[in-house]
């Protein structure tokens, strides 16, 4: 049965908030003072822009025959702290009809590790004060191949 | 374009006020939903307070489009496309005018060219060929239909929508800021280099300092075997990109036909020192 967000019993302080989970998140990942903003409000980016980010991901993505039935979208959402380090990775998966699904676990692990290995982030904010921000990478998948990466 | 912007500046507050004038609703359910919507948009987008008020608005009237749409936006921006789509589907079912926003976002955020085109074509048919503008105001949605077809490899159909839209705008003397650029790149992809150059030169008249256009002009001359002219265009693109001009950039997503400095430098590097 499809989840209806308009009938939710509660909402996070802000849509998309990621709270610390000791089971999955690094205890040594530190946020700087202040809130966690959205990437588009602070200008958080990757060295060389989206083009460099995509080139890296496409170069290191390794297709396997076990992925051949994977068609849909995978969003990997995470935090870039003010020191341009990343953690708190969360994964959302939907099929080509925008319904929730669960793809091959090895594929999701591979994609998540790829995102975790990106290490040329440029923290947003001002020169005087860099900010913590949320960022996401959305992978459009067709039969196990990456067709598009946004934003 | 200047007149268009002025027109928008003068008209927008009136339009917004008209859109949220809850007294226009004669039935209690819509009026209550509207009043709660108005309270919700006073809070930060995506905040708990605002989402709870949208929830109450939709309890009052489950098909109230403005609340469905506004409640969906933070999910879109934060990459939760499941919840965004669920809400926008309900908005579209309530009123097909929301096809404009759903179709535009399917293009911009999801690169779902087929479903974006389907939405915009449905709206195009309903609106007798005038589907309106993208929510950021940059594009007549016929240009997005054309881009969708281009990204699906259907250059002829893409050019049909480009030409129809641009001819319409030329008559009204308000061609979109990037329309000739995208038309030119489409001609370039279709290997009509002379056609592409004509379009891109028109773009330089429209937006003289846009670096991206000169990069594509350089590619056209290169394809036509005119390296000297190509190099001149790449040098101009680099100067505009790094010093005196502008380049395509958007805080949310990579733009269609966006050029990076590394693209320009790679082409210049091929000429040697």
TrEMBL record, chain A:
Domain of life from the UniProt record: Bacteria
What protein name is recorded for this chain? Uncharacterized protein
Specify the species: Mucilaginibacter conchicola
Q: What is the lineage of its organism?
A: Bacteria, Pseudomonadati, Bacteroidota, Sphingobacteriia, Sphingobacteriales
UniProtKB/TrEMBL annotation, chain B:
Write down what this protein is called: Uncharacterized protein
Does RNA-binding show up as a keyword for this record? Answer: no
The parts of the chain that form a coiled coil are none
Residues in TPR repeats: 211-244
Question: What UniProt keywords apply to this chain's record, in alphabetical order?
Answer: Signal, TPR repeat
Offer one Pfam family short name for this entry. Answer: TPR_8
Q: Using the record, list the residue span of the signal peptide; answer none if the entry has no such feature.
A: 1-18
What is the superkingdom listed in this entry's lineage?
Bacteria
Tell me which SMART domains the record gives. Answer: TPR
